[in-house]
Amino acid sequence: MHFTSFVFILFFLAFFVLYWASPKRGIKNLLFLVASYLFYGWFHPWYCLILFFTTLLDYFIALGIGRKILSKKTLMLLSFIVNFGTMIFFKYNDFFLLEIQNALIQLGIDYQLTTLHIIFPLGLSFYTLKKFAYILDVARQNIVPETNFINFALFVAFFPQITSGPIDRAQNLLSQIQSERKWSRSLFNNAWPLILMGFFKKLVIADSLAVVVDKIFTLQQPSILLVLIGAFGFTFQLLTDFSAYTDLSRGISFLLGFRTPENFKSPYLSITPTDFWNRWHITLSEWLRDYIFFPVRRLCLRIKSRASKQIALIVPPLITMLASGFWHGTGWTYIVWGVYYGLLIVIYQIAGFGGAWKPNNRFKLAAAWMLMFGLIMFGWLIFRSPSIEWLVNIGRHSQFVQSSNEIFVAVASLSTITGYIAPLLIKHFVDAIKKDAIRNWVEPLFYAVALTATVVYINSSTPDFIYFQF
Fold first, then answer.
1. Which of 27, 249, 395, 419 could crosslink 160 through cysteines, CB 3.0-4.6 Å?
2. Domain ranges, residue 21
């Protein structure tokens, strides 16, 4: 079931009425949990089995940590093995088998390994991080383990977030599940702009950009110019697609009485790699920072060596971003993309341009932004490429422009991409208006145009979001 599908709209309207008609918090939570499992298992009911049993295990592990039944390390290790073992099995089983098979072929051994071709469960990467963060927070005594299984199961299966995040923390989401919720007009006022912009960015912008981008990246030997235009288009396709999902998730959550975190804060205005990751997929960045970067950094600083500070500067970003690459998907493109960002962070930090660095004049700021945007775009080029071999082949053998006809194709593609990006720039300037007298008529006008465009495009788009595959 997808947020932009007609089936989901009917499902949500029915659930919305039942949910707010229920007088007690316990009944609301039970209805919410049932709805979450129905939503999650709509296409593949067996998804729910994995979700339920791993949730049940972490529920008892957290209680075991709180009651000191076994050592924290033993229980944390059990949770780690089950959660990440499950994710790796479904996500990387065929990838590893194919790599082993290719290695055997290189050695002259013609042996066919049997791949399982198992469908990767939607949202597994997201709720795995959510559950394991909960276990770590319980072990660190940052939170008290939840004794009500329905509350905990709803925290994990919370349907506005389960397929593509945000990766909410128990301190925020679970505490709201435990609290009473009452309907108020402010919930609707907070929700409708997010829902409208979510539909607009997905149906009008992201899906339209996908038509151009997909054509370029399916070419066997495109020119360098076309590849750059494709990377430029994908840079904004990914932003609008993923931020659209987050907007819809947050808007739906507001309608149900929940306040969930933002996931994007103008990431393409970043001037350093660290700044970018503080703005892009914020909940994942915070997870990586708190549970990988900081622990690895503390471990590096404990090394009794003169080079411990240099090690602490280099190793944590590399390991953190490599983990991010593995988390995002199967294939060498994701791994290389993760290493690429790890190296960028290290280089910027060694050069003295850390996350808190800001230029002292507008010229330097513009130069820093242009450089960073180019690096971001190249990163998304790696990310979107069909394979590393395809990308290397383009760099080695393709010309910048291969024919005069291709110039017309490039101009048409770039014009189309720029036209669909324009509403994002307009929205940015609308949000920046401070005078109420101007904003009070400009903002409604923008939303009216966005609503009209969404209605026009609603039948010509795909319901799938890019991050579903991760």
1. 249
2. 6-182
How confident is the model at residue 406, as a pLDDT? 84
Residue tagged 């490039």 (tokens): 410
Measured distance CA(199)–CA(248) in Å, rounded: 7
Q: What is the per-residue pLDDT across 38-92, written as a single tens digit (0 to 9) for each?
A: 999 987 888 899 999 999 999 999 999 998 888 899 999 999 999 999 988 888 7
Encoding tokens for residue 407?
């110039």
CB 246 within 8 A of CB 166: yes
DSSP 461: S
Q: Give the Cα separation of 380 and 230 in Å (integer).
A: 10
Query: Which amino acid type is present at position 120?
Result: F
pLDDT at 419: 94
**Together in a domain, 178 and 213:** no
∠ Cα 36 208 206 (to 5°): 45
Burial of 197 (0-12, 13-18, 19+ CB in 10 A): buried
- Asked if residue 1 is part of any domain, the answer here is no
* 205 contacts: CB under 8 Å, gap ≥ 6: 236, 237, 240, 420, 421, 423, 424
Structure tokens at 463: 């319901």
Once rounded to an integer, what is the mean pLDDT over residues 123-138? 94
| Residue recorded with tokens 């969404």 | 454
Catalytic residue among 117, 328, 397, 428: 328
What's this model's pTM, rounded to 2 decimal places? 0.90
- The verdict on 143 and 245 lying in the same domain is no
Both structure tokens of 174:
């679970």
Q: Which residues of 409-437 are buried (b: 16+ CB within 10 A; e: fewer)?
A: bbeebbebbeebbebeeebeebeeeeeee
Looking at the fold, whether 173 and 198 belong to one and the same domain comes out as: no
Q: Specify burial of residue 45 (Cβ count, 10 A radius: 0-12, 13-18, 19+).
A: exposed
Single out the residue in 155, 182, 209 at which a domain terminates: 182
Domain boundary among 148, 182, 216: 182
DSSP character string of 290-310: IIIIHHHHHHHHTS-STTHHH
Q: How many structural domains compose the chain?
A: 2
Q: Quick one: pLDDT at residue 96?
A: 63
* Residue the block writes with tokens 């890019």: 466
Q: How many CB atoms lie within 10 A of CB 304?
A: 5
The Cα 170–Cα 159 span in angstroms is: 15
Sign, CA dihedral 364-369-370-375, equals positive
Q: Active-site residue 281, yes or no?
A: no
Banded pLDDT at 399 (limits 50, 70, 90): confident
Contacts of residues 298-304 at CB distance under 8 Å and 24 or more positions apart, as own/partner, are none
Query: What is the residue-wise DSSP string for 335-363?
Result: HHHHHHHHHHHHHHHHTT--TT---SSHH
